[in-house]
Amino acid sequence: MSVMILVIAALACSVASADANVTVFPVPDADGDAPYVVTVGGVSVPVEKCGAVLPVYYARVVVSGTQRASVVAPETPDARFDLLPERLRADVCATPGRIAFDVRERGPYAMTVWKDTEELPSFILVVEDASDVREAPVHDNLHRLEPGPDGLDTARIQAALDACADAAGGGAVIFEPGVYTTGSVTVGPNTTMYFAPGVLVRAAPDRDKITDRGIFHFTRADNSRLYGHGVIDGHGHVLRLEQELSAQIIRASTSTNLVIEDVTLRNAPGWTFLIRGCRGVRVDNVKLFSDWAVANNDGINPESSEDVLITRYFGHGSDDTIAVKTLPGEGYWVNDGAARNITVRDSVVMCRKTALKAGTETNRDIENILFENIDVIHSSRGLGIWMRDGATIRNVVFRDIRMHLREIEGEHMSGEPFRVVIQKRHGLGTIEDITYENIRTTAPFRALIQGRADRSVGRLVFRDIAIDVTDRALKRDPAPVFEIRHAEDIQFEDVVVRWATDDRTPWSGLFDIEDSGVIATEGVTVE
């Protein structure tokens, strides 16, 4: 009987025949030993790998119309797939070792994979719309590159970039399909870089060839652009874990009117994408993957920059996937060193640390920050405001955010939906005017709002919030849903707390408030 049931289930999850509306990207380093087999619309999709210690697997495909996708774990026939974001789940059929679902729109279809209680490497199906595949540039000063025969392409890449930056009218560089290996290169002004589908640019696995300014350093790169569906691999599991080098894949500094689109960044040996001291930066449809064993693998960090727009971003990070910061120093920014007017929207993030954060470095003001319409999935911590070094964090809005949080072994803060803290490292700063609006979240651990005896956290609003308190297995010490210390003027409006667990042993109640001023909790209801 059980065999018959499995046969029927497999038929129910069957994949439609091949469709002309499914296009795969050329993949020069497809992983033939990948633990997952993927089809979309009956078309086999090559699987790519990021990292070596705690890797993540992914596949990229262009789809028109609704298509049926299937992911199979042939070597783990009892594997269980958990697919998010919830809004993308359509006609899901999961059986042991396999999951099938409809792909109806673009986006990352992200799966954690389990064998009993053991977590296997995650798999991400990146679905692009045909409109996301942009044409190569046309320019009077056009340079075409192909991978060189000597195995190191740094000099040829740099020469082409210099020829664009030095020309009066700028120029464009087209990377033709193939595998490139490079040390650090510098991108100047008025330069367009295009990665054709099938391009893989690898960092040289030698720290002597990579500077601390990153692999691609956009410096004074006014009016420059990088786009195309190529991949940049930072060789992080070698450069960081074996050679102890910390460097970015992309570092943009002291630049205005900069555009980064479509590319896939993976396996960084440090922060993946740093925007330092820039004005007018647009990032769209960038995909980011990291080996969760590589430390400080932040995703995109806008630092001391202003007028930054990040849209349709997918970040898979071993550290924070977005962190707005300000560091000390002079001369490396185009403004006064503050971080302001930064928007992140229409994105999906998955991380081991904090998904969306302002801080931890806070040497200049951070203000006018908007996080909007974002899915936080399979992640450790949710929304963070972290003051450590002085200055002020003000006017930060988190709006229309859906979070699926979980406890992760070794992450003692994992499961926190909200963290707002003032600490004193290099200076005593202020947090004020923080708004949370239309948030839906799971909560395996408590939310923390914590100032200091000499500096309270103030003027926070939680409006239209739904919190599902879920099972907590790793941290069993009693904790409330909200722990509040040294705070004042905290407003809770239309906040619903739902007990989605029968195990209330590790929960000490709804609120634990000490040494605080006005905390308006009347707007909280419990279900």
Give a description of the structure.
The strands form four sheets. This protein has a 21-stranded parallel beta sheet that branches. It has three helices and 44 strands. It is mainly beta. The protein has two domains: 2-132, Dextranase, N-terminal (Dex49a from penicillium minioluteum complex, domain 1, Sandwich), CATH 2.60.350.10; 174-453, Pectate Lyase C-like (3 Solenoid), CATH 2.160.20.10. The relative contact order is 0.07. A hairpin with a 2-residue loop joins strand 8 and strand 9 (98-103). The model is unreliable at 1-12 and 14-18 (pLDDT under 50).
CATH class of the largest domain: Mainly Beta
Strand content: over 45%
CATH fold-level name of the largest domain: Pectate Lyase C-like
**Total strands:** 44
Distance between the termini: 41 Å
Largest sheet report? 21 strands, parallel
Query: Runs with pLDDT <50, length 5+?
Result: 1-12, 14-18
Please name the fourth-level CATH homologous superfamily of the largest domain.
Single-stranded right-handed beta-helix, Pectin lyase-like
Anisotropy-based shape: globular
Total count of domains: 2
Helix content: under 10%
Structural class from helices and strands?
mainly beta
Mean pLDDT: 93
Helix tally equals 3
Indicate the radius of gyration in whole angstroms.
23 Å
CATH architecture of the largest domain: 3 Solenoid
Oligomer: single chain
Detail the topology: elements first, then pairings.
Elements: H1 2-12, E1 22-24, E2 37-40, E3 43-45, E4 48-50, E5 56-63, E6 67-72, E7 80-84, E8 93-95, E9 98-103, E10 107-115, E11 118-129, E12 142-145, H2 154-166, E13 171-175, E14 178-182, E15 185-187, E16 191-195, E17 199-203, E18 216-219, E19 225-228, E20 231-233, H3 236-239, E21 250-253, E22 256-261, E23 264-266, E24 273-276, E25 279-284, E26 287-289, E27 300-303, E28 306-311, E29 314-317, E30 322-326, E31 339-351, E32 354-362, E33 366-379, E34 381-389, E35 392-405, E36 418-427, E37 430-443, E38 447-450, E39 457-469, E40 479-485, E41 487-499, E42 507-514, E43 519-520, E44 524-526
Parallel strand pairs: 5-11, 12-13, 13-16, 14-17, 15-18, 16-19, 17-20, 18-21, 19-22, 20-23, 21-24, 22-25, 23-26, 24-27, 25-28, 26-29, 27-30, 28-31, 29-31, 30-32, 31-33, 32-34, 33-35, 34-36, 35-37, 36-38, 37-39, 38-40, 39-41, 40-42, 41-43, 41-44
Antiparallel strand pairs: 1-5, 2-3, 2-6, 4-5, 6-9, 7-10, 8-9, 10-11
